Amino acid sequence: MGNRNKKKVWGSKLFLLVCMLFIFYIAYIMIVQELKNIELEKELVEYQSQLEELHVVVDELSDELGKTKDLDYIEKLAREKLKMVKPNEIMYIIKDDN
After folding, report:
1. Can you tell me the mean pLDDT for 59-79?
2. CA distances from 35 to 31, 39, 70 (A)
3. Residue 98 lies in a domain
4. Range of the domain at 32
5. How confident is the model over 32-62, as pLDDT tens digits?
6. Is residue 97 assigned to a domain?
7. Among 3, 19, 78, 89, which has the highest number of CB atoms less than 10 A from its own CB?
8. Which run of H or of E encompasses 37?
9. Is the confidence at residue 98, as pLDDT, over 70?
10. Alpha-carbon distance values, 50 to 35, 77, 80 (Å)
């Protein structure tokens, strides 16, 4: 009967060891998943920030597009950006010493 008790004790210790390993494995998986979740939340915040910036850019470009139908705005851009002048008009460029 002594041999049977040893097997029973050995079996219960083995079962306990397997249960502990399983618990540690589950805990490890949960920790890894939590770390991934934190990383993904950081990425989400970054992407939301980028999205807000892009919405601002889209709004600015939409405003700019709306202005392209205004002839006065087109003339202003042509004069400022492209240095264009009307026929028989003379452009004076004043150079700054700085």
Report:
1. 87
2. 6, 6, 54
3. no
4. 2-81
5. 999 999 999 999 999 999 999 999 999 999 9
6. no
7. 78
8. helix 2-67
9. no
10. 23, 29, 31
